[in-house]
Amino acid sequence: MRIGELADEAGVSVRALRYYEEQGLLTAERSGSGQRHYGDAAAERVRLIQLLYSAGLTSRTIADLLPCVDAKVSTPESRARLAAERDRIDTQIAELTKTRDRLDAVIALSTAPESNCVVALA
């Protein structure tokens, strides 16, 4: 199928497909005129890539993990990589929670009738 057909079937933009190809996440055959042609399994591959992105993984991590997916194996290394990604996300969540708590404190200061918001925030 051609790139526009794949984009429609997988529910992504043509630009996203080109990016996936640039990152080594998706491959296409090229016609004599240079047009991309994808196999029947390409839409499923794109949906997998989308799932991995939505799980917070970077394109580099996805590229590192896809050989295991393609081989249908789970290695200690791939599991460790996923655990490290989860830990990275946990750290981000903790940092965002602290940021939200600070914002809550700023909101509380700004709504207290006896405080001068500008002075309290300085």
UniProtKB/TrEMBL annotation:
Residues 1-68 form the HTH merR-type domain. Pfam families: MerR_1. SMART domains: HTH_MERR. SUPFAM superfamilies: Putative DNA-binding domain (SSF46955). Keywords: DNA-binding. Gene3D superfamilies: 1.10.1660.10. InterPro entries: DNA-bd_dom_put_sf, MerR-type_HTH_dom, MerR_fam. PROSITE patterns: HTH_MERR_1 (PS00552), HTH_MERR_2 (PS50937). Coiled coil: none annotated. This is MerR family transcriptional regulator.
